[in-house]
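Marked as duplicate of an earlier ticket. Keeping the data here for the record.
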Amino acid sequence: MARVPLIGRLSFREYVALVFGLIFIAFEGLIRLVILLLLPRILINWFYDRSRSLFHFLGGRGLKKQNSRDPKATPRILHARDFGELCALHGYMPEEHVVLTKDGYLLGLHRISSKKGQQNSRPGISTGKPVVYLHHGLLMNSEVWVCLTDAERALPFVLVEQGFDVWLGNNRGNKYSKKSIHHGPNSTKFWDFSIDDFAWHDIPDSIQYILDITKAPKLSYVGFSQGTAQAFAALSIHPQLNEKINVFIALAPALSPAGLSASIVDGLMKSSPTLMFLFFGRKSILSSATMWQSILYPPIFAKVIDVSLIWMFNWHNRNITPSQKIAAYAHLYSFASTKSVVHWFQIMRNGAFLMYDDEVMSPVVRTSVSSYRPARFPTKNIATPIVLLYGDRDSLVDIDAMMSQLPEHTEARRLHSYEHIDILWGKDVDRDVIPEVLDALKRYCEDKDKLSGIVNGVKRTGDGTETDGLSDSF
């Protein structure tokens, strides 16, 4: 049946979803307004206590089983206020840095350069160690790397112990980068950014700052989810950036996902990605998440996140323990622009890794030979060695489609029974994921003599001395 122009752009089912979505957003906004402006703190605490009582009345499954070596680790991680406190819980002393991008955003960088229990006596200068840069995913910040209940499962801490100088980046707009010299965060102009801006400014400017401080000629890049997409984009449009990165390791890589598991949302947003602006406005998306977190008992909040991830992406996160979920989900969300999410739906709609399309054309006016084609990131031009670590149950990864868009030197390693977030927080990442990262880093590292641990079969202490890598077994 032919569709009527304008009205026929969406199916009846999609119109129903649109109406109910708008009603839900309006209702949620009203609840948020009442809670934030009218309810006293004592009443908010009452709601929190009632949700806790309800959870325990219904059985409280998942709380009794503690998988961390420290039974107090979960509540400590849960209530840690920031990156510094999370690191301190595990005995590490981070540095804070701020980089000014060329378009005026102030980005927070975190650095861990000293091993557990030690502190760099001269912060802000070169340590002479090999440098690794870690970048988070969508709606996240640098805390996601260090909010694990066991230090041996936290990649930054393992890298520091191995002798690396570890830096962690943050996207503009998130908890650590919510400032610009041109616009305040209450301005719509502040939030007018997409993946393009991360690629043109945030990633290259952060990397250049780090290289200037450390005096290193190159660094290694480890990205997670959107943090990999930002690197794909940045490396493809900045040829000179390829000379500054010795290896790019992509955890749960994201390039051009097929879509969401929630078919109604998937179809609706692909039909018109800019509907996201209608739902969430043109500033920060899902900013009410912090409000719900403050009034819901943590295990209930974790369950809400679990159900949402199953519905949207078909991720069941069975590799993540209940205690780890409760601890880490409190640090999962951070502010991001609605425009950056719209950008992802444009990519899904077109099935290609495109730059943001400011002139979105409706399918109604498209012809077989279009006069308009959004610009694509030329990812096949990337010269930096690429290592993909992907879960074979990740609904966002079509490895064959991804490899077809990347240069021939790209390596792909499958992680059996992993999905997406569990590549960060899974109970066995210290055995399944981190060794793969270390292997790739050490293969491409230009200063192997400065690393600790076993490198190419030789045990190194970090001070240049070597021993037989097998001697510790006897």
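See parent ticket for discussion. The longest strand covers residues 105-112.
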